[in-house]
Amino acid sequence: MHDYEYKLLSYLKDHKFVSLNELATNLNLNIDSIRWSLEDLKKNRYIEVHESTDLVYKVSDEGKRDIDEGFPEIKLIELLESKGGKLELKVLDNKLGLVWAKKNGWIDITDGYAILNDNGKNALNNTYLQFSLLKTILDGNSKTEKLNESILVDLLKRKLIETKKSMHIDNISITNLGLEQLKSQKKEQKINNLTKEILLTKAWKDKKFEEYDINLKVPENYPALRHPMNEFLNFIRYKMLSMGFSETYGSIVESSFWVFDSLFSPQDHPTRDMQDTFFLSNPNKLDIDDKKLFESVKKMHLRNWKGTWKESIAEQPVLRTHTTSVSAHSIYSCRDSDFSNPIKLFTIDKAFRNESIDYKHLAELYQLDGIIIGKDLNMANLIKVLKDLYGSMNLDIKIQPSYFPFVEPGLEIQYFDKSHNDWIEMGGGGIIRKEITAAMGLNGATVLAWGLGLDRMLLSKANLDNLSDLYKNNIGWLKSRTDLNLE
Amino acid sequence: MATTTFYNKDVEKYTDFNTFDSFISEIGMSLEDKDSNKRIIDITPNRPDLLYFYNFIREFKLHKNIVKPHSYIIENKPIGDLYVSNEFNQIRPYSIAFAVKGLNFKEHDLEYLINFSDKLTDTYGRKRKKIALGIHNLDMVKFPIFYVLSENKEFEPLRFDGKIKFSDFVNNDDFKGYSDIVKNESEKYPILKDTEKILSFVPVINSAKTSIDENTKNILIDINGTDKTAVLNAAKMISSSLMDIGCSIYPIKVHMTNRENSFSILEIEDKSIKVSSLDFNKIIGLNLNFDECVELIEKSGYFISKYKQPNIYPIIPPYRTDVFSENDIIEDMAISYGYKNIESKDIKEASNAGRPNKIQIYKNKIAEFSVGLGYTEASNFYLTNKEIEFEKVGRPYSKPIELMNSKTNSFTIVRVSLLPSLIENLSISSNLSMPQKLFEVGSVFELNGDMVNETIHLAMVNEGPKVNFNLIKSDLDALFRYLKMDYKLKESEDPAFIEGRRADVYFESKKIGVIGEISPQVLENFSLSEPLIALELELKQVNYNYK
Known about the structure:
The complex is a heterodimer. In chain A, α8 packs across α9. Helices cover 38% and strands 22% of the residues of chain A. Chain A is built from 20 helices and 17 strands. Chain B is built from 15 helices and 29 strands. Chain B folds into 4 domains: 2-63, Phenylalanyl-tRNA Synthetase, Chain B, domain 1, CATH 3.30.56; 81-264, Phenylalanyl-trna Synthetase, Chain B, domain 3 (Phenylalanyl-tRNA Synthetase, Chain B, domain 3, 3-Layer(bba) Sandwich), CATH 3.50.40.10; 275-339, Phenylalanyl-tRNA Synthetase, Chain B, domain 1 (2-Layer Sandwich), CATH 3.30.56.10; 358-541, BirA Bifunctional Protein, domain 2. The longest helix of chain B has 16 residues, at 228-243. By secondary structure, chain B is α+β, with helices and mostly antiparallel strands. The chains are: A alpha+beta, B alpha+beta. Chains A and B meet through α12, β8, β10, α16 and β12 of A and α7, α8, α10, α11 and β20 of B. β10 (280-282) of chain A pairs antiparallel with β22 (402-403) of chain B.
């Protein structure tokens, strides 16, 4: 039983023949909710509602017109007055006016003339009773008992008013069934809103809670969330950290030396084209402070690629095209280590390509680069790390040969994409060329390395097919997106 | 990467398609596309030799043990002379030429050869800049031949049907092709000619008079370029490839006219590299015996000149330009062994503890805090443009890193702040219910002389009908309380904000940011129709760490 219904029944138990207003005042409820509750109680026969029918009068459309325009008989006597009190009948087309003026005794009719008499002249100066009654009814005083009976009859006859019936609650009283119901409800009166008071008085102990409609539609709610890419990058970080790798951090602005030359990429290599790499006009030069390293990298190039090697080309600043430039710094930073334990490093950050943006290409992409520097490392070790890493993400991978200037042997990682039913390239790796490690002064250590792009991996997890949608930052999408199911 | 096309009909002569297709990926190439007629294969840039169908088949036969590697010898019997003029030498310093006899073109053979030479000069030859290569009908050539610069005159280009002047040819966009490479001030044109006629306009197009067709049996190949090694490598690659389909090679004596007795002829050196079976096992992580290693080297196409356990001395085949050291041969051996057959092995290590990066920890901490305040995280591109970064927010131009050659107009600089992009984000989100709260924590970059400063910034924007200065100030307050930092506010002059409702944020007497209500002009610039409050703070200088 609803709380209101309970309140009503309780009141009715102690008060006989209660009116609607009394309920509203004493229970402090609004009339509409009382009516609504009463309907239910009545249906269940917990109460009796005594209703009576009142007769009320209502002004008809014609009546309203007469109020606005004046009664025809008034118009007639006004006309007669203005014409000297006498007019030939045949010039008068106001038949209704004639009939009622005659009936009211305002005019005499003799020899085809209507003549305004003294009664009529009086009427012009007094309020017309039919008019004032009609006006009273229009203003809402339709209680029948106070109205002049004979004039009412006249108005009804003229169809200036109509009668209407109106239902009206006289009083309400509780039935025996209602009393019984109340008794049983008393035992388990339910709590609607749990309040501090209920908690303090422990009133909840012997009461049940009002049952809510659990299927009711509720307002939609959207949380503040992390950006899905950052959520994904953190996930990859956890994976790498859990495998014992430490995270490094390097600059996106680099000299070509660190991005290309130190990694064995010849100076006329197509990837060093303006077409593919963002060169900078400001700054326009980045010096390589470490002259010893600079010289040994130069020697590496001249010995292997022959031809020429220009310092000015190595000093050209670029936005790094791969995060392997960070790995290059790392390899060089570790040159004095004794490698008694393998050094395992990774970096996750942006790399840049001078691409025209479309659904498959972005100018900046997140990459993961991992390296392991140590003694006696081999391809079988690298394959193991890759299988562990991707296996932990439930990705089935395949290793096959591939070519990157800075590794030898080189490999490519492919994963089996269930939605395309095909092997898709995911990244590359291998053993960093001995020429590179030697130029960087690493003695007796091997460097295993691999790298991969991360944006495309996230696409399907985020239910997107357009890479650039990842970075539109439409707040609606950011807040309503679903779980990435990273595991 | 370059692709090459092989016809199924030709492949079928050697093997079935399944075996062929898996072979493609086993050697590190990839099948780009296939249909009922042909297969298109991606060739990695280290193996341009495999662009040629018969070289690919040779590789297949070697790997499957159908043929054994052999050595390549060219007899030093020149059959003609090539004289290089001094002027020509200035533009294309390195030249080589040789004759090939005994060709027998069938079906797609001619197409394969032409494609090979085109793709080779395109990729390895860097679009003919580094090397250019011409193929002529040897029987039509009257030796000696000459590399010279010619006055502007008429010649008969291949596939042109008629005569045209060099100048008209290079000025016609339909024909000029590679002629920009040799544009020079003297208005002279590099050519190869014999005693009677022009053989080619170098490195643009051959002459029709000595063109080759299916019936040609003997050809002349001339190669010139700017890189000595590349010119020689190309000559070795082409000559050995043609030797392997049964042709004989005859060198041509190349005379550099500025030095009387200086000439060069094509030689295929007998260069070997020492490979140790121990090194192979160590680098790949296997345990093969010496004989197995020898077999892997042979399968990879290396003729073995001698061996003495554990060392093997394979000769680098003349078609391989990518073999620098022992490791390159070890990679070939691993490919022959099959990457899929390499069993993975755990790394031996005493400890295995990864250290998280401090910058990333810091960024995550700030991000989690901001989400807690009800802000949703945005991630914007680092690349932006001056319009968004400065003009639309009414801020004066600072010193961004500028891109020299962007293909995209909207990417011309690297961001110096986060706020403009966040406001831009709101302008595409504006049909949503208010308030809208976004933040970003990330790097911004600014020039400091020739140095680049990277700092971690936090920016927050809050758009809605009821936002005001106090609201963003309490977010700032909350952040500094959380970070256990004190701050001071001073009147700001940042033009992106409303005068009198903006403040610079100071920490330890250094200005580190700004908060306030965004100016209506800025809102109008971004087509926003609700009030907007914002903050941007410089939280941390980035120090790079590499280990």
